[in-house]
Give the backbone structure.
Amino acid sequence: MKLYHGSNVSIDCINLAMCRPYKDFGTGFYLTDIEEQAKKMAVRVSKIYGGTPILDIFDIQDDFRILPDIKIMDFGVQTTEEWAKFVMNNRNKKFTEIDDVLCNRDNKYDIVIGSVADDNIALLFRQYENEIIDFQTMLKGMIYKKTSSQYSFHTEKSIRLLRKVAN
């Protein structure tokens, strides 16, 4: 299976210490199975930080989901209540229950798979956190949002499953 990473630098060696915290699924190396999404991310990152858009391609064995020593949280393609709580808990700097199953700040999951919380969904999260809307209204708003896919790798064990193909 091919996974894509869009950035302004080529990634030859994945360094988890360089990954930013408080992302959708926690601190980790993020990829997608949608090539066009990664290309758009590369352009976006280059506009923000400078440099040239670069698309890195990685390969992971097709059966990685059934490997016995890899713990995976897979939300699928739908934005669900469980997914929303997971993303909000990982993004929220004030969230302290990191051992909760709906949080990955402690890297309890080697790999997390699910939708991207784009700017529209992030706006719904902020409205909920600021008590402008209730949780059910936020969930209803997410149902109609087009989402994209992300695969995040949080441990050295999971990073070793990736093989760089090209950029």
About this structure: The CA atoms of residues 57 and 104 lie 25 Å apart. The chain has one domain: 2-166. The two ends are 16 Å apart (CA to CA). Helices lie at 35-49, 81-91, 119-129, 135-143, 156-159.
